[in-house]
Amino acid sequence: MARRALGIAATAAVAAAPVVAVAAPASAASGSTWDRLAQCESTGDWSINTGNGYYGGLQFSSGTWKAFGGGDYASRADLASREQQIATAEKVLAKQGWGAWPSCSRKLGLSNADKAGSAAAAPDVTRTAQASRSAARTAAPPAPSGSYTVGAGDTLASIAAARGTTWQAIWSANKGVIGSNPNRIFSGQVLSV
Fold this sequence. Notes:
By secondary structure, the protein is mainly alpha-helical. It contains ten helices and four strands, in the order ααββαααααβαααβ. The strands form two sheets. A two-stranded antiparallel ribbon has the order 1-2. It has a two-stranded antiparallel sheet with strand order 3-4. The longest helix has 15 residues, at about 1-15. The protein starts with a helix and ends with a strand.
């Protein structure tokens, strides 16, 4: 409930702020692609801290986490939500490609097609429980009248994939709700799809 209120307050703040043109991320991998990568990197544990200098589901170093804006969410990746880690990872992916996760991206065969949330990416049967709940939610029948209520674990890319559109189209149609950062959506927001 507090997160939803925070999301509504953030949306109101963005709506009241002056409009600033912001370039959309060059890539938007699907939530299932990030879950597959996290499964390989950290056995899907988004809050892991083993003391090895890498944190969270996608095993960010402190320097990478801060350099790509993760410090805006939390001091370390393991203290941030899955969605916040993915938002930061999208920035890393846009700048460094899948090579930022060399071993696991090679093992999973990730390519440029996966950067765009391609439906061609193979499903992973070992997704985390959270990702499974998200997948079950997006597999549910569409909400009436072209609307979609954002749930935990949703990303614009995963919503778009389930609806047969692009994350850019959903973001464009919902900038009044989402604001200028397509990586920041919150549970409870109602989007036009």
